[in-house]
Amino acid sequence: MKAKHIQHLYNRVGFGITPNELERLSNKNKREIIDEVFTNSSKTSPLKADISFLKDIKPGDLKIKEKRQELQKISRKKIQKFSISWMERILNPSEVFREKMTLFWANHFVSESRNNILFTQNYNNLLRENAFGNFRDFTKKISKDASMLGYLNNKQNRKKSPNENFARELMELFTLGQGNYTETDIKESARAFTGYSHNFRGKFLMRKRHHDENEKTFFKKTGNFNGDNIIDIILEQQQCARFISEKIYRFFVNENINKEHVAAMTAVFYKDYDIEKLMRFVLQSNWFYDDENIGTKIKSPMEFLAGIHQVIPYQFERPKQALLMQRLLGQTLLRPPNVAGWKTGRNWIDTNTMVRRLRLASILLNNAAITYSDTGDEETMLTDLTTKKLKRKTFIKTKTDWNAFEKNYKKIDNKGMISLIISSQINKGTAQMLSDNLDIPKKDFCVQLMSIPEYQLC
Amino acid sequence: MKRRDFLKQTTFASGMFFVPQFLKAFEQIPTKTFGNKKVVIIQLKGGNDGLNTVVPFRNDIYYQQRANIALQQTDLLKISDEIGLHKSLVDLQKLYDNGFLSIINNVGYPNPNLSHFRSTDIWQTASNSNEYLQNGWVGRYLDYTKANPTKAIEVDESLSLLLKGKTQNGLAVTDAKTLYNSLKEPFYKSVINANTDAHLNEHNLGYLYNTMIDAKSSAKYIFEKTKVKNASNNYPKNLFGKQLKTISQFINSGLDTQVFYAGLTGFDTHANQQNTQARLLKIYAESINTFVEDLQKNNNFDDVLILTFSEFGRRVKQNESKGTDHGTANNVFVIGKNLKKQGLYNNLPNLNDLDANGNLKHEIDFREIYATILDKWLQVDDAAILNKSFSKLKFV
Q: From CA B19, how far away is CA B4, in angstroms rounded?
């Protein structure tokens, strides 16, 4: 397989590739390499939070307000830590493609549980475990996940007063897309999800007396449907396979849909909703390696941060600065903006995030200062506003593993580094500037490569 | 013909289409102006308790529902026989007395959402409560006017949804100098100057270059335009005071910005509300009053309208911790020089008529306020920006 294509594959299923790996794979053919990608991600390593503080908690404890608030406070701290360890996982993944898929699903089945670390952890691992599984089972599990039951109010959905929030988003955002169902479909399916709930450990419970046992008419079928039946009926619509295929295409191939390619994907996926089969089909396709798909996708903040790490490993000395970085670039893990998730592609880039991205390599790799002010969000309670600094200047302190860089890029000269770091076409003037700079030290040249607009693409 | 004149004429004659976008870096091409009216939007983040801000001190239900936290008549700044402002709002009362304040009560939206974040989204995007929009109403204003990023500024480090449009974005700036300096290094200069591709905006790479160039020219514009101007020194020494000071510097320097956005945090008063709210409202009122005085001194107050909102109000009945939980409808303050309706815009909430959760029912949709500002103040097509037509109010 051509080096350029291997690089492209690894940019999309992971966060880049080292020169050694690239060399090792260059003798293999496409099928072998793709098989290896899947084999390397066949296991699931769940991400674990320390939840020992919940061990002796009994359901009654949560009824006491003070106790509940105390637990929530601990949980919120643990969720921050969990978010940091998720980022560490993304930077140092054992199953790289699975982690990439997990990021995809986290922006598809969007949920959030701000006050419960257990639910947060379970939800995150649910995404990871089912990343290559069966979409039907996956969707059903999501509908019963404690974090989702809370986030979209399905646990408040009762026979007497149905709450349509989950039913609506299930169709609008998770399976069919806007305009592919009616308001009646929402009302009827909401009734099928009544009585859904969970216990305080997050285990799914059906509260029978709140479940509507009467007949529902959904997509022209009538019966005493429950939530699982509704999901089955939704998946009978080919539109569901198309909707997911389009989303996969935008994330892994190109933000601009090619109808023919998506139609082929839809045909594969509709057969049995097997996610792994769909992904194999995409990566095997010749069009995946078309020039128009290489180096044309704007990296998400996570792809950007992990991509730098792939070339020059770094570690935040103060782990919380990882969260600051996420926030300043516009993608805080576990804190999606809303149920529609992060807007991707060009939406990652505004003047502020652009300036930050251009400067990030030098900030991360040279311990440079970054100024920011913290105005706090809606839940922030400030105890003393006057002592809070008006503007903070903080030094991003990282441990940078330049040795790893020197070792990995030993055989590569500055000129050779360009095609290894940059996958996009390079603007003529910028290319000229780079070739004028070929004689500067390798480290500096690498930081320069990571500071040009072209580096934002993969 | 000088190159500069040529560029301007081409722009006007043929629209922006034939002028490569990147030339913006070298020439400030004026976009079509839609008047010089400005709007300053302020969010009291966390959900300010409106009922303890504008207080119905003759209402028995108010005192019944809030045994520990109700404000007594003697502690209030009376503005009518029945209504008093929180005692921290001395400076706001000055504005009220001058006829610069209009208090719009019971503002909300149907099927209110009690999550801070979701409700903030709803206010910022001007969506229905079951609708998820990916752009803010100010962002869509920028789309509509095809404006430069400098037309809407958020005084913060990152850009809120409010200022993000479909094609245009506003700018987040706390300090023009830092932003200016961050791209001033010779390296970025040569990347920008070396850029020779004339078909930039068609693909993602072009978009990235344009954004970089936009960032540079916006930062340069703001930095150069404001560096000479000083502001009053009376602003309270805290983040919010600093934000308003920055905005006044921007306005008084003659920046072309039309919308500013700032926020004061900490109103989520679930416990021991009284002290927290008193302190925050004081900061709010002092900062706003200083800001208005600053604008007046520079003869700019005529063109500025200040809108203050919270993502929601709070529950009528207090909780067990001497605080209040998330509620719904709330009051909105509009501050300006020539208001059509000064003082109380409408009646205070009816505490006899609450929703199933014990929350206030809204009377005015918040989007009617936006529609009014867009239509009557900024003079643009409000329905095109809000995706729907709303009835207009009569405060401007």
A: 12
Domain boundaries, chain B: 38-178+238-386
Which long-range contacts does B352-357 make (Cβ < 8 Å, 24+ apart)? B352/B61, B354/B316, B355/B328, B357/B114, B357/B315
Question: Of B169, B204, B207, B261, which to mutate for an interface test with A (greatest number of A Cβ within 10 Å)?
Answer: B204
A378 vs B117, B134, B187: nearest CB? B117
Contact B374, B143 (CB under 8 A): no
Query: pLDDT of A404-419, one tens digit each?
Result: 999 999 999 999 999 9
CA distance linking residue B249 with residue B351, whole number of Å:
42
Give the CA angle between residues B386, B164, A173 to the nearest 5°: 75
Percent of chain B with pLDDT over 90: 67
Contact A168 B130 (CB under 8 A): yes
CATH topology of domain B38-178+238-386: Alkaline Phosphatase, subunit A (3.40.720)
Looking at A191-195, B69-73, B235-239, which range is the least confident one? B235-239
Is residue A31 in a domain? no
Contact A380 B45 (CB under 8 A): yes
Confirm or reject contact between B191 and chain A (CB < 8 A).
Answer: yes
Nearest residue on chain A to B199, judged by CA atoms?
A: A427
At B25, the pLDDT band (50, 70, 90 cuts) reads: very low
Instruction: Quickly state the pLDDT bin for B239 (edges 50, 70, 90).
Output: confident
- A297-328 b/e (C-beta count within 10 Å ≥ 16 → b): bbbbbbbbbbbbbbbbbbebeeeebbbbbbbb
Any chain B CB within 8 A of the CB of A337?
A: yes
Bridge partners, A304 (sequence order): none
Q: Do A453 and B205 touch (CB under 8 A)?
A: yes
Secondary structure, 3-state, A29-87: CHHHHHHHHHHHCCCCCCCCCCCHHHCCCCHHHHHCHHHHHHHHHHHHHHHHHHHHHHH
Amino acid, single-letter form, for residue A154: N
Chain A contact for B116 (CB, 8 A cutoff) = yes
Q: Is residue A379 part of a domain?
A: yes
Strand partners, B332: B104
Chain A contact set for B215 (CB, 8 A): 351-352, 354-355
The reply to whether residue B169 touches residue A165, judged by beta carbons under 8 angstroms, is no
Does pLDDT of A390 surpass 80?
Answer: no
pLDDT category of residue B200 using cuts at 50, 70 and 90: low
pTM for the whole structure? 0.84
| Two tokens, residue A118 | 């257990």
Indicate if ipTM > 0.95. no
* Contact flag A375-B265 (C-beta cutoff 8 Å): yes
Q: What is the model's pLDDT at position B202?
A: 66
Joined tokens for residue A414: 């500055």
Closest of B374, B291, B378 to residue B36, by C-alpha? B378
By the CB < 8 Å criterion, does A416 face chain B? no
Total of domains in chain A? 1
**Residue A188 domain flag:** no
What's the confidence (pLDDT) of residue B34? Answer: 55
Binary contact (A338, B208; C-beta < 8 A): no
Percentage of residues in chain A with pLDDT exceeding 70?
Answer: 94
The answer to whether the CB of B149 falls within 8 A of the CB of B218 is yes
- How do residues A306-336 score in pLDDT, each as one tens digit? 999 999 999 998 888 899 899 889 999 999 9
Q: Which domain does A366 fall in, by range?
A: 301-456
- Asked if residue A348 belongs to a domain, the reply is yes
Q: What is the pLDDT of residue A413?
A: 96
